[in-house]
Write a structure and sequence with these properties.
Strand content: 15-25%
Number of helices: 10
Helix content: 25-40%
Number of domains: 3
CATH topology of the largest domain: 2-enoyl-CoA Hydratase, Chain A, domain 1
Oligomer: single chain
CATH superfamily of the largest domain: 2-enoyl-CoA Hydratase, Chain A, domain 1
Largest sheet: 6 strands, antiparallel
Shape: globular
Radius of gyration: 24 Å
């Protein structure tokens, strides 16, 4: 009876709020009634005692995750943990993750982190954490399971496209320290810049690297390596794109409300003075990486080499709730200068070069994508 009363109250409130559109929303009201009925059946007839609060959290999270892989519910405890800095040190694996089909999907492993060193790849599906099945867990629950004390080990069971058997990784957690920008001179005439994330200092670091490399009079080209870069700050993506463009649109965002749509444009001044630019991308290039790669491609300012990027072209906002929890909700999408959306599509390279071997590692002797770019630039 209690569940029926709750359902009646919800229905009554909805009627009060939208009497004029009742006939249009009959199906919605029936679904709310059905939801209440299912809750009642579970509480009365399920074989074990049911935690109603936990079930409701799961239902809310399921609703959000049905929208897209990036929207999610955070309970008051999870939201507080996210906001609160503690003196306790937590070890990490060094991966950016999302949810897909009820399991954790690796967006990108970060350079020189435990996950990267172990061989975790972009696109891998984490199906078990230790002996716990990921299916049915929220993203935040799965992330919390992967956290642990520094130096402790964790076992991940992974499914990989094209590999029949599950792959098991035993990884030691470490404090994750990210050096977002690295650079070097290749063959005395190519400036190589590796960007692994877009944090608040990335554009300044890249500016310094370019100014230093520009001092070499033999320099004829640049390689900007955005592989396995899961993204970061939109402002940094805009600034870094602007370093290589003279004018034109860089990116736009479109929201449900037209008044919240935005566009960003390049300012005059190409830092590398029109030199040939190659951008390396792969499936681990996401979000801000795709904005930079897509803008430079659309303006025909760079040659893109590698593999199709991830396709994360959306913006999420953390919205606090009355219960002191929060939701992470997609509020807008990115669009390239051409007007194309990145979401679920990604950016396609001008020249496709697939990773050759299982031993492939970025910026090493096994990096056939980088070697292809160097060979192309040196004729």
């Amino acid at each position: 009876m209690r569940m029926i009363k709750i359902s009646s109250i919800i229905l009554f409130i909805l009627i009060l709020l939208s009497q004029k559109s009742f006939s249009d929303n009959t199906k919605l009201y029936k679904k709310i009634d059905l939801f209440s009925e299912v809750l009642e059946k579970i509480n009365n007839e399920y074989v074990d005692e049911v935690d109603q609060s936990k079930n409701m959290d799961a239902a809310i999270n399921g609703l959000l995750q049905s929208l897209d892989p990036y929207s999610a519910y955070m309970s008051p405890e999870t939201f507080e943990n996210m906001q609160t800095e503690t003196s306790r040190e937590f070890g990490g694996l060094g991966i950016e993750v999302g949810m897909e089909a009820g399991v954790v999907k690796v967006i990108s492993p970060i350079d020189n982190t435990p996950a990267s060193k172990a061989g975790i790849k972009a696109g891998d599906y984490i199906v078990k954490i230790e002996d716990i099945q990921v299916q049915g867990k929220s993203l935040m629950e799965a992330v919390n399971l992967m956290r642990g004390s520094v130096g402790s080990n964790i076992k991940l069971t992974v499914r990989r496209k094209g590999v029949k058997k599950a792959i098991i990784f035993d990884i030691k957690r470490e404090i994750i320290q990210i050096q977002s920008v690295k650079s070097k001179l290749i063959d005395e005439n190519i400036g190589y810049i590796r960007l692994t994330s877009f944090n608040e200092n990335s554009s300044q670091q890249i500016k310094k690297k370019i100014n230093f490399l520009n001092k070499n009079k033999k320099l004829k080209a640049y390689i900007l390596d955005l592989r396995n870069n899961p993204g970061g700050l939109l402002s940094q993506a805009i600034k870094i794109s602007d370093f290589f463009l003279e004018n034109g649109e860089i990116v736009s965002t479109k929201s449900r409300k037209v008044s919240e749509n935005s566009k960003w444009f390049a300012q005059k001044g190409d830092m590398i003075n029109g030199k040939i630019l190659v951008v390396l991308i792969n499936y681990g290039s996401a979000s801000a990486s795709e904005i930079v790669a897509g803008a430079l491609k659309d303006h025909k300012r760079a040659i893109l080499i590698g593999e199709n990027s991830y396709g994360k072209g959306s913006v999420q906002s953390i919205i606090p709730l009355k219960n002191k929890g929060a939701i992470r909700l997609t509020i807008s999408k990115y669009y390239l200068p051409s007007g194309k959306s990145i979401s679920e599509v990604g950016v396609t390279p001008d020249i496709e070069v697939i990773e050759k071997t299982e031993e492939f590692k970025i910026n090493t002797s096994t990096d056939n994508q980088l070697h292809f770019a160097i060979k192309l630039l040196n004729g």
